[in-house]
């Protein structure tokens, strides 16, 4: 007689999120262990300096709640992050929302400039062999110099011509983000197959028609792939640009101030803010990609 | 396909007559159609084309001469490398000959291309995947500046012509290979060119779909009276469709035989069982064998 087996159905949500939750849990455990190990001597030193007796429990508690730990425990970072986001008015200088918005505006402007520059360069390269040969080496060279070395130069030069604040940061951000877009779009604009190009020729299409009706739509998947790379790089560019300027606001400024004063928790919460910002930006690009793909008849 | 009554007996009469096997044979009066009632549509004169490849020069076309009258259905057949596709591309001005000249509708090949004198159907449908079927059909019309209403009307008319009404909003991936190729034929016809150039359009399709499309193509030809140049690998396909067959052979690519014959425009697949059909097929086969060197 067959034994009726009770079907164990997993809820789809559980099925989908279980792997992620597991990984996150493992990482948090490793982080806690790391926090204990790294802060141990610091806390012990503190007790010994005060010549106070301490138990192992107190020692462990100390590693979890130190004011300036080497490695803050996850709950400290989350606490500081939540406090930074919700604890102050969004315009207060201690608010993470305020600093995030400052960095975000530079990121978005830089991303827009970078995308524009990237696409224009790709168009130039695709339409002219001379430009390809003359531009491509410089484009590649531009990315070989570390941005940390270049950023102060940019800031000083742009400051000398009277540009300050948002624009220099955006320019550094654009300087980083145009590159993946140029590379991706050159590939995308040349992706139509020869048969499609021949077809356009048999209809005696003008170069502009070939661009708008064939090259551009063919490049759309490449565009989104490079936009995703570019938008995170834009954010990094904006943060890096805030470091040498001694900026008073922005995620970069928070990082810098945190490291001046050994405020590790502040550094980490600023990092979390940057990560949240990056995920949000990627999510927006992903959403746009899905919507465009739907309109372009992609099989779902 | 419902056969028009009375056609078949006519066809039999034709088949009783000796089939005109050679273009140089004395011109008997044609009962059913004439191949050269309209002026010369395509004139290929002493065309040669040499490719420079890594292995040295390859003579893709050597001294090719050919005149095609308006309204003819001419098939080009031959083994791969015989230059049949290259010849079609030269006529379409997708490739320039090393020497010789090509005239299409009395113009140079380039002028004819710029004047949109022909529709080209490739081996693959080459539809634009991001465009719906209707939008694919409209593409050449958009480029050529037809008004939006005209575009819509023409798209509807030519989709109907290839029996695909109702598929306007579908995307190419939702259609079978045969349907996609029908769309690409409709697209080539949509701006009403005099000349239709087809490069192995059914090569990638299975036998049954191919037979079906062959019949449809013949009806189309009968209906529209276009001049069709058709490249193929298949002897039955060539004999079934054409009013003239050009047999080519490789190294160097050249014409070895031209077979001129007259089946009625409206013919059915059964014609393939007749002795006349087989005689022509046999001649094509002999021509292919003679031109083909088996030394490799």
UniProtKB/TrEMBL annotation, chain A:
CDD domains: TM_PBP2. It is a multi-pass membrane protein. The chain crosses the membrane at residues 20-40, 104-126, 147-166, 172-190, 219-241, 265-288. Signal peptide: none annotated. Residues 96-289 form the ABC transmembrane type-1 domain. GO terms for biological process: transmembrane transport. This is ABC transporter permease. It comes from Tardiphaga robiniae.
